[in-house]
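Troubleshooting entry. The earlier prediction with magnesium ion gave an output that would not parse, so I re-checked the input for stray whitespace and re-submitted. Clean input:
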Amino acid sequence: MAFSIHGLSVSRGVVMGRAVLVGSSRRDVAHYFVEPEQVAVEIDRLRAGRNAVIEEIIRLQASIQQMGPKDTPQELRALLDVHLMLLKDEVLVEGVKQWVSERFYNAEWALTAQLEVLSRNFDDMEDPYLRERKADLEQIVERVLRAMQGVASPVLPGGPDRRRKPRKSDREAAEDDLILVAHDLSPADMLHFKQSAFSGFVTDVGGKTSHTAIVARSLDIPAVVGTRSASQLVRQDDWIIIDGDAGLVIVDPSPPIRAEYQRKQAQNLAERARLARLLHTPAVTRDGEVVELMANIEVPQDVSAALACGAVGVGLFRSEFLFMGRHGHLPDEEEQFAAYRRAVEDMHGLPVTIRTIDIGADKPLDGSQRDDAHLNPALGLRAIRWSLAEPAMFTTQLRAILRAAAFGQVHLLVPMLAHESQIQQTLAHLARARASLDRRGVAYGPVQLGAMIEIPAAALNLRPFLAHFDFLSLGTNDLIQYTLAVDRTDESVAHLYEPLHPAVLRLVAQTISQARKSGKGVAVCGEMAGDVAMTHLLLGLGLRNFSMHPSRILAVKEEVLRADTRVLAPWAAGVVAADHPEQAILLR
Ligand code: PEP
Ligand code: MG
C-alpha cells in the first residue's frame, strides 16, 4: 500500500525508482553494476569470500577442541556454531546471488543489500534470542566483506564502467532508476556517490544547507533529507518516488500516482529545455545592470558543468573536498596545485575563486564520522581556525593556490574570519607562502584576496575586512546558522532556519551596501544566491555577483532578465526594514 514520508526538499525534480538501502556501517562498499557476462565471476568472488570465512571458523573450532572444554567458554562454541549456520544458510546465499544475477549489483553491494533485507526480518521477530542474531549476521557479513577485499572485482570501481547502467537488453527490472536511502551520509560519502549510478537520495537526518544537501544539489538530482525515519520505513528494492520540489518520498506508489509523476517529470524536462534557451543570453537587467552569475564547485571536474550552464566564473571552489575521506593522507602541495591548476585552466581565463580549506563541523576530514567529539563542532576548530592551528598545512595550501594563479585568474577566499588578529595572521601566512616560493624560484601569480562574511561578528564589524581585502563573499548558509543559533544540519530545528529573518536580512543588506560604498566587490555564495525567490531582493539590495550550483544558474538568470533594479531598490529597502519580511517580500 502506498504511503508518503515528509522531509526537506534539497534538490528539485522528480525521480521514480528502486530503493537501495545503505546501512551506516557498510557505507564504504563500492556500488557499481557488472556486465551480464561477469555475473558468474562476481558470484565466484562471493563464494570465495564466504568459503574463506567458513574455513577460518572451522579452524578456530578445531583449535578450541584441542584446548578442551574448561579453557573455552560454552558461549564461544555456540557463537561459532551460529556463525557457521548463518554462513551456510540458503536464504543468505540465494538472496545475494539474486541481487547479482538479476540486478547486476557487484558482489559487495549484493551482500550488503541482502543483509539489509535479512536484518529487517530479524527486527520483526518476537523472540528476543532470535532478534539478537541480527548482530551475528552483521558480523559474518563484515567478515565476508573483509575476506573479499583480497579478491578484487574484474570491474574496478572508479573505472569507466562505474557509471554504467544496465543495458536495454538486460532484464527489465534492472532498468529502473536507483534511489539511495540512508540514515545519514557524510559530505565525503556524497562525493563518492557523485561517481555512482544513483538517480536520487533520501536521508533521515540533515538540514537544507547541510553539506550533504549541498553536494546532493550539486549533483542536480532529486533529493530529500531530514525524513527522520525513511531508512526504517523503506525496504530494500521498494518502488519509491522522490518529489524533490515538495520534499516528499512516496513508497509503493499506485499506478495513478505513478502516472501523475510521469507527467510531472515531463513538465520538468520541458522547463529545462525552455531555460536552456537562455544559455547564451547575457545576464543583464532591464535597466542595463550587468550581473555576474558564477558557479560553486567541489572538485575540479565540476568546471565542465559550470561552463555548460553559462557560468562566468567559479565564485566558490570548496577546496576541503580534496581533503576529505583521505584517511590521514592529505594532499600535498603538488597534488593540490594540480587540482587548482586544472580548474583554472579549464575555465579558460574566467576567474576561479578558491576558498581555503573549510574543514570541521559537518565536514570532518575523515569521511564517515562527524566531529561529535566536541559538543559544539560548528563553533569549534573549523575553517580558518583550523588552518591557523595547522600553519604548515595552511602555507602549503596557500603556495599551491598562488602557483595555480600563474595559469589564470585566481581569487583566494578565506572562510569564517571574525577577528582582526585572524586577518593579520592570514596575511602573514600569505606573505610567508610567497617568500618561500621566491626562495624556491617557483613561479606564481597575483590573486585577488577575499573574505567570507559568514559570522555575524564579521558582518557587524566590516571595517578591517574592507581595509585588507579586495572583495567580500557572503556565506549566507553559515550567516543564518550563526545569527539565529540554528544548527544548519539539524532537521529538528530546520523550521527555524529562516533566510528572511529581519536580523539576517539586515546583516546581508549592510554588508552589500558598505562593500559597494568602499568600492569593493561583494558576492553571495551561500544557497541564497541560487534561490529564485531571493534574486530580486538581492538585486534590489545592490548585489551584482551571485555564486551558486551550476544547475541553478539559468533559473536565476531568467529572474535577472525580468528585473529592473530602479524599481527593486526602494522595494528591497522596505522588505529589509519590515517587521515581517516574509510578508513584505510578497507585496510588489
Ligand atoms: C556558506 O556558509 O554560505 C558557504 C557558502 O560556505 P559553506 O556552505 O561551505 O559553509
Ligand atoms: Mg560557510
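This one parsed fine. The chain has two domains: 3-263, 277-586.
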